Amino acid sequence: MNQTFDFSRWWMLVTMHWVENRKRYLLAMLAMGGLMAGWYSFILVVYKDGAMNPFVQYATYYCGLYFVGCLYASTIFAELGGKAQGIRYLSIPASHLEKLLCGILYGVVLFFIVYTLIYYIVDIPLVNVGNQGILKEHQVWAGTTIPIGKIEVFSLWNNEWAPILDKQYHMLLLGYFTIQSAFLLGSVYFTRYSFIKTIVGILLFWLAFVIFAVKGIEEHLPQGWRTYNFIQWNNTANNAAQLQLVRLPLWMESSLFFLIQYSIPFIFWFIAYIRLKEKEV
Amino acid sequence: MDSPSMVSIRDLHFAYRRKPVFTGLNLDLHPGRIYGLLGRNGTGKSTLLRNIAGYLFPEKGRIEALGFEPGKRQPAFLEKVFLVPEDFYLPPTRIGEWVGTQARFYPSFNREQFDRILRDFDIPADARLDEMSYGQQKKTLISFALAINAPLLLMDEPTNGLDILSKSQFRKVIAGTVDETKCIVISTHQVRDLDNLIDRVMLIEEGKILFDQDLETISRRLTFKISLDAEEMAGALYSEPSLKGNALILVNSDGEDSRPDLEMLYKAVVLEGEKINKAFR
What is the ipTM of this complex? Predict the structure, then answer.
């Protein structure tokens, strides 16, 4: 048998995880659905007119996804935090890669699918309820006489209400996998309080990045040049009519976006794999 | 002649942060034996077992177990080694479910043997693991560890938490399990629990093996007796007062047959180590 990855051994690990955690997972799914339904009911009762508008759906989906997804990811390797559970986890005759992939399957793939399914199970009927109210009560947008038309169910990939950056690059959705992979790494890296410590770690990393991108780069720019955003710099020394702008070459810009969109989770998963191999209990 | 060693430890160095535990430990473990690893709390017994099982990594030196480097934790190694830790974790499921998912990882697992040992320990086969007492959980884990039929079985304080009847049952079950292909290492500070069970004694103190002998050799070289004879007392390697007279350890010069008193031997090695070891040179 292959000592790095064997599908049947990995599948045994997956089924073992399910048998040991299914009660907890089923309860968590019910709780998630209940919380979403409770929140939407509150919105429908309190705001009434166009309450289920796409922005509310959009915000609800992503707030829940980021919070619950990261919270769950920070517990994926929580067994390694204690001696008794850690010994048990490391003693299971499966490779580190199989253990990591089992964690990714539950924490990343299945969680995302299940969360999205639960979201739509709650969202679709409540959007219908909202639309019936709009029809029955001839609702109009607040402060206007413009009638509220039929509200569409939130589309995960093609949301009209999303900010431009998100519409173009799906940054919020792909960014979720990046942030979540940091929490997954945190669950291997930190033995205690991994959720809080990962938040602190991400904030410190972001702070260092911003300082570097703004101050660090500006130190090396000619007089009057400032950072406009992370890929553009402008010269504000002269008046606005003579504004000069420099941006990264297009290929570099798109390569950078591609890297940010798709590569960071893989990098963090790889580091988590190394940490898993180095783990001692 | 001894069979080739199953575990070979050479020049093992290990420390917890700045506190050294082992500084150049050498040890060989052979199949077909039950080793009693005796020592006070905090002398490195558990650390040694965890190094052998691959849950801790040596700072320096080499460990080879069953032809593997334990620290790599390859599945083929993990299915041949089982550690019953002092503090352990069992998932909140029924015994049957737990065994069903866990046993598939161990090719030599024998379900009938598991059920038989469980019956011997008087554990109901359909009990829930999370509703059992600590002692019952420990007996279930020991039953599983034995039914795996792993060539190398490591047990850290296995009799802690067991009642008197269970301790004697434990001795019986272990004695019935060992064969020429298996090596069992039992670490304990409750020396009497290993009476009539082990066939080799290793005493560990301050991270060093102070004494490592077969029980057969011990009874050939040493005599354990109660005596009031002043001459015998004067020639004793170790003596301590007892209710019936003085408990003595003497050099067995006339081939007298006596059963080694492990507790007394332990004290003698710790207090008069040089004298005792001299008797074996």
Answer: 0.91
